[in-house]
Amino acid sequence: MLRVERYEPRWRDEWDRFVGRSKNGVFLFCRSYMDYHADRFADHSLLFFDDEKLLALLPANRTDTTLMTHGGLTFGGFVTDERMKTPTMLELFEVLDRHCRDCGIGAVLYKPVPHIYHRFAAEEDLYALFVRGGRLVRRDVSSTIALRDRPALTKGRKWATKRAKANSLVVRASDEFERFMAIEEENLRTKYGVTPTHSAAEIRLLAGRHPGHIKLFGAYKSDELLGGVVVYENRDVVHVQYIATTPEGRELFALDRIIDTLLNEVYADKTYFDFGISTEDGGRKLNTGLIENKESYGGRAVAYDRYEFDVAA
C-alpha cells in the first residue's frame, strides 16, 4: 500500500540518507542545499512510502495550482533507489495524481534527472510520463564530455591550451569566492546585461555547507586571480556552474589552463564533465557561440527536458 507525505523538517535526516543511497540523486537534493532558497519557493516536496519503508522522494514546490519538480533546481524528478521498478513507478504517479487532486493542484511540471546523473538505469519515470500523456514543453541542450572516451580537442583549442601552459599560470583550489563572483558579475553584466543566479554570499554559504561538492578552481599569476571555474561535484559527474576570466586572463588563456587541469588531472577519474546548457528562450534558441566553445573541448549534447501533465479530474 503506497502512501505519500508532505516534507517536514522532521524528515530531514531520512530524506538526506535516501538521497545518498539513491540511484539518481545528487547533492543538490539534500535539504541543506534546497532549503537555502526556501524563502523564494513554496516547498511542496513529497516522500512516498510502501507501508513504513521509504520508497521515493520528489523535490518540488508549488506555484498557484501547479506543482514543479523543482523551481529552484535545474532538474528534480522522482529520486529512487535500486528497488524501483517500472510497475511501481506507474503506481507512484497514480499516488502523486491523487495527492495533487486532493490539494487542488491541476498540473505538474516535471523535470527528470538527466541520464548522466544515474548511477544505473533510472528512466522508469520517463515511461510513466508517456503513459500519463506527459507533454514535452521544454528541451535545453547541455554539453557534456564523456571522460573515458572523449572526442579530441579542436585545433584551435589545442593551440590555446599549449599557449596557456607556456604562460606558466598556476591552477589551484581557491576560497576567493567574493573575488571570483565579482569577475563573473562584471562579465555577465557586460556581455548579457544579467546577474548570476547566486550571489557571492550564497555561493560561499553553499560551499561551506557542501565543501566536498562545491569548489572553486582559479588560475593565478603572482597570486592574482585571473579567472576561475566553480564546479558542482557529484558522484560521477562534475558540472560547471560558473566560468569567468579577467581581460588579462583571457589574453593569457587562463580558462584553457583551468579546464585542461580539471579534465586531465583533478577529475580524470570521473565519468562525465558537464558544461551546462547553451539555450535561451525556453530552450528554443541555441547560443551557437557558447555551445561551439564548449564543443571545442569535446562536449557533446545531453538533453535537459521538462514535461507537463494534467492531474486527472
What does this protein look like?
This protein is an alpha+beta fold and 313 residues long. The chain has two domains: 2-140 and 304-310, Gcn5-related N-acetyltransferase (GNAT) (Aminopeptidase, 3-Layer(aba) Sandwich); 149-270, Aminopeptidase (3-Layer(aba) Sandwich). The chain is built from ten helices and 16 strands. The strands form three sheets. The chain has a ten-stranded mixed β-sheet with strand order 4-5-7-16-8-13-12-11-10-9. A four-stranded antiparallel β-sheet has the order 1-2-3-6, sandwiched between helices. Strands 14-15 form a two-stranded antiparallel ribbon. A hairpin with a 2-residue loop joins strand 2 and strand 3. Helix 5 (155-166) packs across helix 9 and helix 6 packs across helix 7. The radius of gyration is 21 Å and the shape is elongated.
Radius of gyration: 21 Å
Helix content: 25-40%
Q: What is the string of helix and strand elements?
A: EHHEEEEEHEHEHEHHEEEHHEEEHE
Strand order of the largest sheet: 4-5-7-16-8-13-12-11-10-9
Average pLDDT reading: 95
| Overall shape | elongated
CATH architectural name of the largest domain: 3-Layer(aba) Sandwich
